Give the backbone structure.
Amino acid sequence: MNTLSKQEIEFDEIEEEEDFYYNRFVIRTSNLAFQIWKVIIIIISFISSFDYVRMAAFDEEAEYDYYADLVYQLIFSIDLVINFFTEHHYSNTKMSELNLKKIMINYLQGRFFLDLLALFPLVKTAE
């Protein structure tokens, strides 16, 4: 019979408390505020894609272009941070991952670099 030492039991309890503490910061995809945020991101993505094409096609630089680019980068930066805290759904098991550490690792190995690419100012890079 394998008995756990008092130290191992205490370590497991500390680990469970840490998991509970960090899991409070996980954003559920069923959350209404999160769903509204994702709709806003889709709308901003659509608008920014047309706006960047307009900026690239017409050489006239308006003051609006500078501020619009700042707003797009700010919104996409906020979304990048939010994605580090959003629960992950496994497609093959339909299970949700609520462990914050695993969520962050999953995001870094998945869509992170694509989301990071959205932060680069493409119009200024093309000049």
Strands lie at 88-89, 96-97.
